[in-house]
Amino acid sequence: MLPRVSLSRLLAVVAFFGVAFAALRLATPVLASAVYSLAVLVLATALLQGIARREMGWTGFGLFGLVYLHFSLFASPPLLTGYFLESFGSVNLGFSTNMTFFSPYSSALLPPDSSRLHVAHSLLAVFFGFMGAMLGRFFAVRSEAAR
Fold it and tell me: 41 in a domain, yes or no?
């Protein structure tokens, strides 16, 4: 059975990713901070809602996203995604370097400055949150079937 998704939830997801991709393109520290703060707010709220309602989907979303965000930014040996983002940012396609971000003529798809890395880690935290939500729902269905 497919889960029901309301229009307001889809609108919130589209708005989050719209702001996040705009912050990736502009890469100002204020927008990076706003996307990071929004990701933490959404993930923490989901975790609290999951604990209060005892729903594994929300708990998995919040827990996986916050754990990823913590370890991606504060871990001593960086996670594999950190190496991927830094190597992705240093890709040289042999084109001119003075073009805009995501331009077909750009020399780097994701330059490795800290603002874009924070936005990218925030997006990945939400992605891993969705993976945690699916895993949490899977475990909840399995435990209900075992009863």
Answer: yes
pTM: 0.69
Domain membership of residue 47 as a residue range: 7-146
Angle at 33 between CA 67 and CA 97, to 5 degrees: 105
Question: Does some domain include residue 1?
Answer: no
Percentages helix, strand, coil for the chain, rounded to the nearest 5?
75, 0, 25
| 15-25 tens-digit pLDDT | 877 877 777 77
Give the tens place of pLDDT for each residue, 71-93.
Answer: 887 777 777 887 777 776 654 43
How many structural domains does the chain have?
1
CA pair distance 65, 82, nearest whole angstrom? 15
Q: Which two tokens stand for residue 49?
A: 């809602």
Task: Assess contact for 88 and 36: CB atoms under 8 A.
Answer: no
Angle of the 29-53 helix axis to the 114-146 helix axis, nearest 10: 10
